[in-house]
Design a protein that fits this description.
Blueprint: H1 2-22, H2 25-34, E1 39-40, H3 41-48, H4 52-64, E2 68-73, E3 76-81, H5 84-100, H6 102-110, E4 120-121, H7 123-131, E5 135-139, H8 143-148, E6 155-156, H9 159-162, E7 174-179, H10 186-196, E8 201-207, H11 208-213, E9 224-225
Parallel strand pairs: 4-8, 5-6, 5-7, 6-9, 7-8
Antiparallel strand pairs: 1-3, 2-3
Helix pairs in contact: 1-4, 3-4, 5-6
Length: about 250
C-alpha cells in the first residue's frame, strides 16, 4: 500500500509539470500562438512583447514539460506545439475559464468584443451558408498563421490591413470572420470594424484550432487573399482530418 501511495504521488508530480506551464499567463499565450503556427524564438518574443531571453526561458519550461518541440534552421530555433492534444488542452483551459471565471466575460465585454455582443455563427451554419453562396469566409490572423493552416477557400486579410483594403470585399456579400479561437480578439475586432462601415459581418463561433479538432479539413499555403475570387472546396485541403461534408465549398462570391 505504501508503495502504491508513492507511485500515485509520482503520477501527480508528473501532472504538475503541466501545471508549471500554465501557472504563467505568458506561457499560455505562447502555447496559444504555437497552436496556430510554428514560430522562431524571435517571432514569439515580438508577438508577446517579451525580451528574447525571457521568451526563451518560458519556452524552455514548456519544452521540459514536453508541450512544445523544436527544430533548428541554421542558427535559428523554431518552436511548435508538440501535438494536437496540446492545442485541445489550451482550448479546454479557455472553456473552463469562461465557464468558471466571471472575470473573463467582464474583460471581453470591457473590450467590446465579447461573444454576447455579436452573433456567432456555428461551424454547421457556416458550411450551410457557404454552400448557398451567402457569405465569404475571412481569416483575419497574421499571414504566417494563415499559411500554416486555414479553412479551405477562406480569404486571408489580417486585421491590421483590413481597413486599408476594405474595398477589396464585395459590400453586397456578408462576411464571417474567424481567428485563433473563442478568446481571440482579432475576429470580433474585424467584425466591429466591418459593421462600423455598414457591412454585414459575424464571427465564427470559434477558430482554426477548433475547426481542425472537429475533424474538418485544413489547407496549407498562401492560398487565397481577399482580392481574389475566394472559391475553395474542402476536398482540396492538403491535410485532411477525418473530413466531413467534403462536397461543400468554403469561399464566397467573386
Amino acid at each position: 500500500m505504501e508503495h502504491d501511495a508513492e507511485r500515485r504521488t509520482d503520477l501527480y508530480e508528473q501532472l504538475a509539470r503541466i501545471g508549471k506551464v500554465v501557472v504563467h499567463p505568458k506561457r499560455i499565450e505562447l502555447l496559444d500562438l504555437l497552436c496556430q503556427a510554428e514560430r522562431s524564438v524571435e517571432a514569439l518574443a515580438e508577438a508577446t512583447g517579451l525580451k528574447l531571453t525571457t521568451a526563451s526561458a518560458h519556452l524552455q519550461v514548456m519544452r521540459q514539460a514536453r508541450l512544445v518541440e523544436t527544430r533548428r534552421d541554421g542558427t535559428r530555433v523554431y518552436y511548435r506545439a508538440a501535438g494536437e492534444e496540446v492545442c485541445r488542452f489550451v482550448g479546454a483551459l479557455g472553456d473552463l475559464a469562461r465557464a468558471r471565471l466571471a472575470e473573463v466575460d467582464q474583460i471581453l465585454r470591457s473590450l467590446g468584443t465579447d461573444a454576447a455582443g455579436a452573433e456567432r455563427v456555428s461551424r454547421d451554419e457556416l458550411l450551410a451558408r457557404v454552400q448557398a453562396g451567402e457569405v465569404v469566409v475571412l481569416d483575419v490572423r497574421p499571414a504566417e498563421e494563415y499559411s500554416a493552416g486555414h479553412i479551405p477557400g477562406a480569404r486571408s486579410l489580417p486585421l491590421e490591413h483590413l481597413e486599408a483594403r476594405l474595398d477589396e470585399l464585395d459590400p453586397a456579400v456578408e462576411v464571417v470572420a474567424y481567428c485563433r479561437g473563442p478568446l481571440c480578439l482579432l475576429a470580433p475586432e474585424a467584425v466591429a470594424l466591418l459593421r462600423g462601415r455598414g457591412r454585414r459581418a459575424h464571427c465564427l463561433e470559434d477558430g482554426l484550432p477548433e475547426w481542425r479538432q472537429a475533424g474538418l479539413p485544413v489547407e496549407e499555403g498562401s492560398g487565397t487573399d481577399a482580392g481574389s475570387s475566394g472559391h475553395g472546396d474542402v476536398r482540396s485541403s492538403r491535410r485532411p482530418r477525418r473530413p466531413r461534408r467534403s462536397s461543400r465549398a468554403l469561399g464566397g462570391r467573386p
